[in-house]
Amino acid sequence: MRAPRAFEEGVKHLLADLNDEQYAAVTHGEGPLLVVAGAGTGKTQVITRRVAWLIAQQRAAPEEILALTFTDRAAEEMQGRVDRLVPYGYATTPIKTFHAWGDELLRENAHRLGISGELRVLGRAEVVLLLREHLFELGLSRFAPLGDPTRFLGDVAGYISRAKEEGVGADQIDTFAADLCARAETLRSETVDDEKVRRQVSAHADALQRLGEEHGELATAYRAYRTILARNGLLDFGDQVLLAYELLRDDPLVAARVRERHRWLLVDEYQDTNRLQGALVDLIAQGSRNLTAVGDDDQSIYRFRGAAIENILGFVDRYPDASKVVLTRNYRSTTPILSAARRLIRFNDPERLETKLGISKELRAEVEGSAPHPVAFRRFRTTADEADWIASEIRSSVASGRLPRDHAVLVRANVDTAEISRSLNMAGIPWRASGAAGLYDRPEVRLLLAGLRHAADPDASAPLFLIAADPRFKVPAGTLAAAVGKSRRDHRPLREALQAVGAINPDTVRLLSRLSDLVKESVERTSGEVLYRWLRESGLLAELTREATPEADEQIRNIGRLFDVVRSRSRLLELDRAPFLVRYLEELGEAGDDPSAADVDPDLDAVALLTVHQAKGLEFPVVFVANMVETRFPARGRPPRLALAAELGGSDEIVPRDPRAPETPTALDEEALREERRLAYVALTRAREQLYLTASERATGGVRPRKVSRFISEALDLARTQLEETAFTGERSSAVAALEVAEPAPAVLPARAPGAAEQTPLTLSYTAIEAYLACPLRYHYQQRLRIPLPPHHAAIYGSALHAAVAEFHRGQMVGAVPESEALVEALNRSWQSAGFISRTHEEARYAAALKVLERFSDEERASGTVPAYVEKDFSFEIGGHKIRGRWDRVDVTPLASGERTREIPVIEMSDETLRPTLPLSDEWVVISDYKSGGRDDEEGNATRARDALQLQIYALAWRAATGRLPDEVSLRFLDSGKTATVPVDPKRIAKARDRIVEAAEGIQSGSMEAKPDRMNCTYCAYRELCPSSKAPAGRPS
Predict the structure, then answer these.
(1) Can the peptide bond before residue 634 be classed as cis, meaning omega within 30 degrees of 0?
(2) Distance (Å, rounded) from C-alpha 117 to C-alpha 105?
(3) pLDDT tens across 813-853, in order?
(4) What single DSSP character describes residue 783?
(5) Burial of 380 (0-12, 13-18, 19+ CB in 10 A)
(6) SS3 call for 447
(7) For 781, which DSSP code?
(8) Angle at 561 between CA 560 and CA 565, to 5 degrees
(9) For residue 988, which of 168, 472, 649, 899 sits 20 to 30 Å off, Cα-Cα?
(10) Residues 6+ apart with CB under 8 A from 1036
């Protein structure tokens, strides 16, 4: 298919603003390419424009390109940029994480692996529970002591995970174990004259023997664990890549199909790939060898996660014919910052690409100011002085006109943030952190979990105490204290004691009545429904929505995260009821499960307080790198209790050194220091205009002096003695004040300005657009805060039917129409026993769904019509904003000459350039949306189809993908079996386009005022929370 002329014209714009090096990388032809992209040189721009260029030049169809990266956020960013370059048809260009791509490959080829296509992937804590359940099948002895047999299971799980990351199998570990034992025997047979040395050699042999036996045990457990997973049809996170690699390695047919499908492969952040991911990339690229690897060895900072810098350092050895492009024009930082960073990283020579390949990686500043600030170093007496000075500098900077969010304070580890956060609080400076606390530790989450635990076990005292002590419920402190005492004296549950002591207090009686109702409901209702009932009864959600502050918004997001956790965990239970879920959550917690709290909105105007790892990929005008002292930065890593040996590809030296060998730093020690230096390099290159490096002589309250980090000496080209002689800055006037110990502090967030605008282009769905047009505050609750809602039987019924219908059509499209049993199985997989009025109600709805499926299947088989597309993603742009969605069904019927009965609808839009990517001839196109409801009123159904904004969006998406509107749109009502099909009306399409723009502009302006209306409010899911609601009491559910 030839690219449209408009797209060809767009190629000129695509390349116009690239520098010479970027141009060379984007327009590279066939064969392997290594793009060495230094910090701030436009790496992501190169990848995304290369994707667009390959498509525009017809070197590749969109689906023939595979781009791999590491995080969902990075994949979404790349996808968004590609959307804007090739906005129509983007969905056929896979841009995925390694694990997402591997998971997709495994599901697609499940039959070849002998596993179910409905893969269940275990998290780390679930792996530990599985090991516990099958403990005595693992063959453990040393690692399952009889006094505490589960003590080391978390360590065993971590060891197996690392082995999978390195592509190491049980047989390799067995071989390593046997080699250690053989070395021990050899040492014992040696003749050593010196008695002292002989004892040392003997002890060394014993250590090798023990290590070998331990690894033999671990190999046995690893082998048994994989057998258990296979027997139960389970995967763990590592399997998504490991099994994908083994499938490509061992199945020539699958490998051939993958290589044919993905003729072009691009890998982002290549320096962070582990050995297994690197090997997987090499397997995919074996066919066309059209591999583009983009990365920077100087920013390889994830060794602790298994990242193998050898992949990028050895790229040219594996691909001798590779072209090399080095991006050196930096669009972020000033010359002083880049010079300091370069001086620092050169201490890693010669283990860098620059020296290995004989290239120059010296970054040149492209955004130099008139008088760039030099990199500053400040030394303090104590860490408290250091934190106070940082807060003072930021306050002065904000007073001079900068925004709080222009500043970042970077530290080596989260533990280093406590004093800085306290000083920022004292200075009244808003700040935000990332991943600072676990979800279960958040007060709002603890209150909700206490309600769930009480429903599971009303006689448990701790949950009830936590609830009764919450000021929302107004239980007098004296009453609660007396009840606790009575409970202890009488050996009775706290519930009974509180009933007796608090009988005369109305608030106490009211609380106990609510909790009693909650317990009763937990017998019949799912855990999610019980949790939502408690959320409503507690008044917590209503209180937070009324507050409308950033802190309240953050708590609402955490509540939403809790509901996500409960939803995902409860699906794994045989019976979803509160007692079983609570027990399962407790077991997961014991195994180390602690989901992260919701991140604070990154767009808030607040100082970023981050670890250097969290700051990777970010940039700020002003950066403070704090606590740069020896032992803190560089840090002294501590290997895990069961570490994968370096001889097996791990990053830790666990084999003891021969006592007769000289004491010198090992290669791993040197690489660990180089990794810390790369981490410091990343920290320095986050700064755009000003960079401060700070260190303090002593920790607050400490007495041991600390040395300034060698990295400051290397970056500033100053001797350590010069740094140590630097005068202290901002000493405290009070010796007592210097002894203050900072307590961890909650983030101080800026007040949420009414109408805070979103400046970046939006990504909107029909659901978001419809919500905003109905009521902007509903959009805020639904899309921004994601306030959890109770499950509703209509949604569960509809989504399960949709899943079964999609299963039917997918089989139909490949010539294998599913039998009724397969459709029922698809229905069951999506069915949830939640939201129904009663068990009888659920049974009636399920029986109705079976009848609907039977009729649908019979009618579709009889019609013989096969859709062209089912559940197909689309994306297009309007007014610079991306609209995403999915067509339920598209029917395309070729027309013979003269067969067309109606002209193709036409609409003109002045602000767009069409770039069609779907093939097109003269065809009759009907786009349908399935609905589970429906009535026999044909005229009413037709009116609903004509007015449906969702169908109009579908039509606009088809026009974007093909250059023309569809002929008709339809609503297919599954319950009634009726179909309402109407011609596409260009006037309605134009009106729909205007409504989309109206919603996008409103959202961008930040206008979130309620639009109270009796009808809308009556059926709004947030009616009980909204302060502006006009809904009458007794709204129908």
Answers:
(1) yes
(2) 10
(3) 878 888 888 888 888 888 888 788 888 898 999 999 999 99
(4) I
(5) buried
(6) helix
(7) I
(8) 120
(9) 899
(10) none
Laid out side by side, the sheet with 687-698 consists of: 376-382, 687-698, 620-625, 407-411, 607-611, 431-433
DSSP code at position 59:
S
User: Who's near 652: CB < 8 A, 6+ residues apart?
Assistant: 639, 640, 643, 644, 645, 646, 668
Taking each helix axis from N to C end, the angle separating 153-165 and 239-250, rounded to the nearest 10 degrees, works out to 40
| Contact status, residue 833 vs residue 526, Cβ threshold 8 Å | yes
List the structure tokens of 498.
């509180």
- Which residues is 869 bridged to in the sheet? 890
Torsion of CA 487, 441, 751, 615, to 10 degrees: 170
Length of the chain equals 1037
Q: What pTM was computed for the model?
A: 0.78
Q: Residue 866, CB half-sphere, CA atoms under 13 Å: how many?
A: 9
Give per-residue burial for 722-733: e unless 16+ CB within 10 Å, then b: ebeeeeeeeebe
Helix axes 506-524, 527-538, angle to 10 degrees: 160
Closest by CA to 259, choosing from 247, 241, 276, is: 247
Counting other chains too, the contacts that 752-761 makes at CB distance below 8 Å and 24 or more residues apart are 752/548, 752/549, 752/550, 752/553, 753/1006, 754/1006, 755/1005, 755/1006, 755/1007, 755/1008, 756/1006, 757/1004, 757/1005, 757/1006, 758/603, 758/1003, 758/1004, 758/1006, 759/1004, 761/84, 761/880, 761/881, 761/882
Place of tokens 């109408």: 755
542: number of Cβ within 10 Å: 15
| Cβ 1011 vs Cβ 970: under 8 Å | no
The token pair that represents 629 in the structure block:
């002292």
Could you please report the per-residue DSSP string of 894-916? Answer: E--TT---SPPP----TT-----
Question: What's the burial of 502, exposed, middle or buried (CB within 10 Å: 0-12/13-18/19+)?
Answer: buried
Question: How buried is residue 638: exposed, middle or buried, by Cβ count under 10 Å (0-12/13-18/19+)?
Answer: exposed
- Scanning the structure block, which residue is given the tokens 């990517």? 917
Distance, in Å, from the CA atom of 310 to the CA atom of 308, rounded to the nearest integer, reads: 5
Largest CA distance in the chain: 104
The separation between CA 250 and the C-alpha centre of its own chain, rounded to angstroms, equals 31
DSSP tag of 398: H
| Cα–Cα dist 616/268, whole Å | 14
Q: What are the structure tokens assigned to 274, written together?
A: 């582990």
Reading the block at residue 133, the tokens are 């359940």
User: Both ends of the chain: CA-CA distance in Å?
Assistant: 51
How far is Cα 976 from Cα 717, in angstroms, rounded to an integer? Answer: 79
Q: What is the dihedral of CA 238, 240, 246, 252, to 10 degrees?
A: -170
Burial (CB < 10 A; 0-12, 13-18, 19+), residue 678, is buried
Is residue 596 classed as helix, strand or coil in its secondary structure?
Answer: strand
Q: Are 854 and 734 in contact (CB under 8 A)?
A: no
Q: What is the pLDDT of residues 3-45, one digit of tens each?
A: 444 445 556 677 888 999 999 999 999 999 999 999 999 988 8
Rounded to 5 degrees, φ, ψ at 644 are -75, 125
Are 629 and 706 contacting, i.e. CB atoms less than 8 angstroms apart? Answer: yes
Angle between helix 550-570 and helix 540-547 axes, rounded to 10 deg:
140
Least confident of 134-138, 434-438, 741-745, 779-783: 741-745
Sequence letter at residue 377 = F
Q: What whole-number distance in Å separates Cα of residue 268 and Cα of residue 293?
A: 7
> Over the stretch 175-192, which tens digit does the pLDDT of each residue have?
999 999 999 998 888 887
995 CB burial (10 A radius; 0-12, 13-18, 19+): middle
